[in-house]
Amino acid sequence: MKVLDQYPKEVKVFLVASLINATGSALMWPLVSMFVFDELGRSMSDAGLVILVQAVGGIIGQLLGGALYHKVGVKRLIVGALGMNALGLFMLPVVSHSWYAFMAMMALIGLFNALSMPAIQSFIGFRFAKKRVELFNVIYVANNIGVAIGTALSGFLADVSYSLSFVLNGVTSAVFAVFFLLYLKKIDDETTTKHTVASAHSVTPGASHWLLMRNYRLYLYMALAALLLHLGNSLWNTGVSPYIISVGMPKSSYGFLWTLNGILIFAAQPVISLIKRFIAKSLSAQMIVSSFFYAGGYIVILALHSYPGMVFAMVLITFGEMLISPVMPAYLSEHGGKNAPFYIGLTGGIGSAGRVVGPFLMGTLYDNGGLIPVAWLAMGTALLSAGFYLIHSRVNRSSIAEAYS
After folding, report:
1. Which of 125-139, 210-224, 335-349 has the lowest mean pLDDT?
2. Which residues 6+ apart lie within 8 Å of 166 measured at CB?
3. Which terminus of the chain has a smaller tally of CB atoms within 10 A, N or C?
4. The CATH number of 208-405 is which of 1.10.10.10, 1.20.1250.20, 1.10.10.60, 2.10.109.10?
C-alpha cells in the first residue's frame, strides 16, 4: 500500500509480525465455544463460563501490563508475556481432559495475552511519537485484516482438528515473541536513538500506582465511556445473533455482518479520514463522535429491527469502532508521559469489564423481552459514553488551561 511508503522499514516489518499474530489470535476465539460444546461435551453455559474466565484474566493482564512496564522493562514484559501465552496455547490440548485445568489454562492465556497489550501500545507511542496517531490506526487496520483471515481459516481448521488451531495460535504468538526479542535487541544496540530508547524501554521507577490513580481526570471518564461502549456492543452476540436464529434467517446472515465489519475497516478508511478532517479534528472530538455513531446504529436497529437495518447499523457502528480504537492509546501516549503504560493498561482493564458484564445483562434482557429492550440498553450506554467522553474533554481542557495559567 502506498500509505506505508512514508514509514521506515522497521514499521513495515512490525506490521507484518502484528498481522501474523492477529491471524493466529483469531483462530482461537471463534472456536472456544465450539470446542467446549462439541469436543468436551459440556453445556453452552459452561462455554460461556470459560469465555468469562478468559475475559477476567484479560482484565487482570491489562492492569498488570501497564503497571509492570517500567518495573520489568519492555523487552522482558513483551517477550515474556508472548512466550508464556504461546506455552499456554501449546499446553491447552494437553490439559483439556481436566475441566478445571482447562479453565485455569484459559484464564492464564487471557492474562498473558493481555499482559503484552499495554506494553506494545506504549512502546509504539514512545518509539514513533511524531506519527503515533497515524501508526496506531495503520496497526489497527493490519490487525483487523489478520482477524478476518484467521476467522475465515478457523472453520476449516476446526474440521481438521481443534488442537491444531490452538497450536497454530501458539506458533504465531511465539513468532511474535521472537520478533520482539530481535527487534528490541537491535534497538538496544543503536546509538543514534538515545532519547527514544531511554523513554521507550528503560527500567525507570515511576510514581506510586496509587498516586497515579489520583490523576483520575486523565483516564477515568475515558475508561468508563469505553466500558459502556463494550457493554452496549454485546448486543451483537446476545441480541442480534439469537434474533436472527429465532426469526428463521440463515446463520450465515450473522456471519456476513462481521464480514462487512472487516471489509469496512479496510475499505472505508478514506471516509474516516474525511470525518477526522472536517467533523472530528481532535482526538477528544473523535471519541465523542464515535459514541454517536454507535448510538446511531442502535437507533436504526430499534427503528427497523430487520436485516437491512442490521446491515446499516453495522456500517454506522463500524465507523464508530474505527474512530475510537486507535485514539485512546494515542491520547494516553500523548498526555500520560512516562506513565502512559500504566494509564493504557488501567483504561484497557476498566473498559474490558464491559465485555464481561455485557453478555449477562443483554442475555437476561433478551430472554425477558427480545431484541427491543436489548437495543434500548445499547443505545443508552452509547449516549452515556458520549457524555463521559464530553466530560473527559472538558476536564482535561480545564487542567491544561490551569497548567499554563
Report:
1. 125-139
2. 27, 28, 89, 90, 92, 93
3. C
4. 1.20.1250.20
